[in-house]
Amino acid sequence: MSRRAPPRVVDQPPRRVRAGSDSEPEPLTAGAPAGRSTP
Length: 39
Hints:
Number of helices: 3
Order of helices and strands: HHH
Radius of gyration: 11 Å
Helix content: 40-55%
Number of strands: 0
Structural class: mainly alpha
Oligomer: single chain
Shape: elongated
Largest sheet: none
Strand content: under 5%
């Protein structure tokens, strides 16, 4: 199970990991800072 988890996160949302927040997917990709959490 743990082997299938990493590939999925790295294959689909690579920008999420770069932002530094797994909680906010789209907000961070839109260009918002990793320190702010706005809708």
